[in-house]
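ARCHIVE CARD
Drawer: 12
Card no.: 0347
Subject: one protein chain, sequence and derived structure
Cross-reference: see card 0346
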Amino acid sequence: MGMTPPNPAAVATLLDQLRKHLENELVVQRKLLVIAEQMSPKLMSGDAKGVAALVAQQDEPAREAARLGSIRARLAQALATVLHLDGEVTLSKVLALAPAAIRSELERLRQEVVQVCQRLGRQSERNLVVTRQGLAMIRDVLGEAMGAKPMVAYDRRGLIGAPSAPRGAVVNFRY
């Protein structure tokens, strides 16, 4: 018994929905990227009100991006079912089975979404590093102001504190 061929109308409808979906996802991811890029100088200058405003602006697009991601996964799964794709379902595998007429447009959109998401990830990582450095500086300043003793790292013996006097070692690398 052979496998029934994919329903062309169902495939065309799902692929058109996927195209519109990827366009929407690209718009939302670009919004998030712009916000993340605007946040960087505000973090560096210590503009707490500006950062708070950008974080508030980020909430709705972030929720929308999460919602769109789950819809994309459901669309890919539906297309995989209609196209009789076995195994792990990825958008790349689904698009490889799409008709050539729409495949290049969908692949271009997929690549754009991936690139924007990668840029967003890199910018978010930079923002996180700046935030962590700022918090470490605040911790250090407050520690100094409160008279806290600085943390001393373990030495090679696994002990904390100043090195002890040589104990007759043939070669002593500490001095």
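Annotation on reverse: The chain is about 70% helix and 0% strand. Residues 100-146 form the longest helix (47 residues).
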